[in-house]
């Protein structure tokens, strides 16, 4: 295990027994999560991602393979040893899982109290964490008095209470609206930056991966289909599973390129000035119109991120001129044709 790795999963398998026979939830999973990074695991519903995160902290015991955490093989631990290691792994759930009869502060104190921390120290830690997540004024509020975003902030504070080395987030924003999701992701990024905690994000939303993660593993049909830097996979998805997640609405390029129409071009914006009118400039320079088939871009601090799919002119010479225009401006793009994916 390399010195910069905090989690290493080796040849992991997980099967379940059902009335109809054996179900293999995970097959030959191998991946490494580096210390201090935000690592994403993404897949469609039923791909096995939630089973994988539960195998990382051994809430589900793997059928085969190993899970190394900070150099220790967790599959060889049991009882008190395993419980001690789990204290270094905080977990955040989709449905918050707060204790409804406890206040926000009391919920945060709970994991400390059950490990024998004094009430005074637990209270001080809870107050510190409520400030960190922006809820100092909600210490005495019960979960029923909190919004969804506030509940998740309390859940994050509770997970941080024992000073974990890793935070596991299992669909932590799936139950939240887009604005609240953005605020929770910003909070997680801030926690990662300020505290240096490794964060593992489990999600089915590529937008979450793009917003927060350094690297990502794509899980498909119980196997890892692709692993890499988020930027590399977004620009150049190699596998069908990656293309399904990255391309607009999961559509492969043949959707954009009917046989009797002109081919399309997918332009990826990775921080170019949002004040530069790329498409308008290309149209004016090449003296030919394009049809915007899809656009999903956002402005972050005056820079553009996202992608646009445009239908190019049928004339090859004009099309080549447009591609040259994009190339000269250092844009990431690919011609989208029916044989991709």
How is this structure best summarized?
By secondary structure, the chain is an alpha/beta fold. It has helices at 49-56, 79-86, 104-113, 119-132, 148-160, 178-195, 206-212, 230-235, 240-246, 278-286, 316-328; strands spanning 5-18, 21-34, 38-42, 64-69, 72-73, 89-92, 166-170, 198-203, 215-220, 223-229, 264-273, 291-300, 303-311, 332-336.
The tally of structural domains comes to 2
CATH topology of the largest domain: Rossmann fold
Structural class: alpha/beta
Give the low-pLDDT segments: none
Give the quaternary arrangement of the chains.
Answer: single chain
Strand order of the largest sheet: 6-7-8-3-9-10
**What percent of residues adopt helix (DSSP H or I)?**
25-40%
Number of helices: 11
Specify the CATH class of the largest domain: Alpha Beta
Largest sheet: 6 strands, mixed
Number of strands: 14
Draw up the topology in text:
Layout: E1 5-18, E2 21-34, E3 38-42, H1 49-56, E4 64-69, E5 72-73, H2 79-86, E6 89-92, H3 104-113, H4 119-132, H5 148-160, E7 166-170, H6 178-195, E8 198-203, H7 206-212, E9 215-220, E10 223-229, H8 230-235, H9 240-246, E11 264-273, H10 278-286, E12 291-300, E13 303-311, H11 316-328, E14 332-336
Parallel strand pairs: 3-8, 3-9, 6-7, 7-8
Antiparallel strand pairs: 1-2, 1-4, 4-5, 9-10, 11-13, 11-14, 12-13
Helix pairs in contact: 3-4, 3-5, 4-5, 5-6, 10-11
């Amino acid at each position: 295990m390399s010195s910069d790795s905090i989690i290493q999963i080796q040849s992991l398998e997980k099967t379940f027994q059902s009335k109809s026979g054996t179900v293999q939830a995970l097959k030959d999973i191998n991946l490494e999560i580096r210390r201090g990074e935000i690592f994403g695991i993404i897949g469609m519903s039923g791909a096995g991602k939630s089973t994988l995160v539960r195998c990382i902290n051994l809430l589900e015991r793997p059928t085969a393979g190993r899970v190394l955490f900070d150099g220790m093989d967790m599959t060889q631990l049991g009882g008190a040893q395993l419980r001690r290691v789990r204290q270094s792994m905080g977990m955040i759930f989709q449905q918050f899982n707060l204790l409804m009869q406890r206040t926000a502060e009391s919920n945060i104190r709970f994991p400390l109290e059950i490990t024998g921390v004094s009430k005074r120290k637990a209270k001080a830690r809870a107050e510190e964490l409520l400030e960190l997540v922006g809820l100092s004024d909600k210490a005495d509020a019960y979960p029923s008095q909190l919004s969804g975003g506030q509940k998740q902030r309390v859940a994050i504070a509770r997970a941080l209470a024992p000073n974990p080395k890793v935070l596991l987030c299992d669909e932590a924003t799936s139950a939240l609206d887009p604005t609240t999701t953005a605020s929770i992701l910003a909070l997680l990024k801030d926690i990662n930056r300020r505290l240096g905690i490794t964060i593992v994000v489990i999600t089915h939303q590529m937008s979450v991966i793009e917003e927060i993660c350094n690297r990502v593993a794509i899980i498909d049909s119980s196997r890892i289909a692709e692993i890499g830097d988020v930027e590399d996979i977004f620009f150049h998805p190699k596998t069908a599973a990656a293309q399904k997640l990255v391309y607009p609405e999961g559509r492969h390029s043949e959707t954009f390129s009917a046989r009797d129409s002109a081919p399309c071009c997918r332009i990826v914006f990775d921080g170019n000035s949002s004040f530069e009118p790329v498409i308008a400039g290309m149209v004016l320079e090449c003296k030919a119109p394009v049809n915007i088939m899809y656009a999903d871009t956002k402005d972050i601090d005056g820079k553009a991120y996202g992608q646009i799919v445009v239908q190019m002119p049928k004339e090859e010479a004009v099309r080549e001129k447009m591609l040259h225009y994009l190339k000269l401006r250092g844009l990431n793009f690919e011609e989208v044709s029916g044989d991709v994916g």
